[in-house]
Amino acid sequence: MKDILIIGIGAGDPDYLTTQATKALNRADVFFILDKGEAKDKLIALRRLILDRYIEPGRNYRILEATNPERERDVADYNASIDSLNRDKQAVFEQLISQLQDGEIGAFLVWGDPSLYDSTIRILDGVIEGGMPLDYEVIPGITSVQALTARHRIPLNQIGRAVQITTGRRLREGWPEGVDSVVVMLDAQDSFRHVINEDLHIYWGAYVGTPDEILIAGKLADVAEHIAETRAAAREANGWIMDSYLLRRGGREA
Fold it and tell me: Which domain of life, per UniProt (predicted)?
């Protein structure tokens, strides 16, 4: 039986790590890191910074790296492309976990929280279903949603009202019924433009919690183009972007 820790490491600032997460880091013997390409070297560097900062002096550990599979873009069947991606990731996970020696504990460091828009838990369940004997523990982390609302100094929900967390693809289908606050993640196409006539406020953030952090807030109709231009420039400068935003009826400017 192999033991795995899935450790939520927060949204970008090393200070976001919880006490539980730092204790988990010091239980692990092997850390698995998936390389997403040269453009995202900063993400790997931040993981290494976290290990250097929080692992106790004198504790030995290994780092195993592998190339992170890429999802096929612009395909007609989105769900099929995700299934294919997760199968490819499962093969990588199995290859990494198989390198654990007897008695060693392996760990995956997950941005934000492992339960929110991350596939690690599902993929490890697939590894188990595939016949590899292992057990895992999940350590929660501060999500990008929490970091975003904290940086804008706003509550996530309005009193007595529901919040929905969705994707840009879903937002392009229209404003969801029954909610006043919508958090949008995984939006590569500035989907807020599709609801610009809904009289909304937007609270947008990119690279939240990192030295590259950018925050913009205001009435959506007034700042939509500014966000789109800022987002495009940041992506061009960094080679990648990690952003999210909250749309709200009756919001206030932060």
Answer: Bacteria
Question: What gap in Å lies between CA 86 and CA 174, rounded to an integer?
Answer: 28
Query: Which DSSP state fits 9?
Result: -
Has domain 2-139 been given CATH number 3.40.50.1580? no
What's the maximum distance between 2 C-alpha atoms anywhere in the chain?
A: 59
CATH of span 144-249: 3.30.950.10
pLDDT digits (tens, 9 = 90+) for 156-214: 998 888 899 999 999 999 999 989 999 999 898 999 999 998 889 999 999 999 899 99
Distance CA 155, CA 139 (A): 24
Strand order in the sheet with 163-167: 163-167, 181-185, 243-249, 200-206, 214-219
For residues 1 and 136, give the distance between their C-alpha atoms in angstroms, rounded to a whole number: 10
pLDDT in tens, 109-135: 999 999 998 999 999 999 999 999 999
Domain boundaries, the chain: 2-139, 144-249
Mean pLDDT for the chain? 91
Dihedral-angle region of residue 132 (phi above 0 means left; psi in -120 to 50 means alpha; beta otherwise): beta
For residue 22, what pLDDT band results from cuts at 50, 70 and 90?
very high
Q: DSSP characters for 167-228? A: EHHHHTT-PPTT-SEEEEES-SS-GGGGGTTS-EEEEEEESTTSTT-EEEEEEHHHHHHHHH
Q: Which residue has the tokens 């009202």?
A: 161
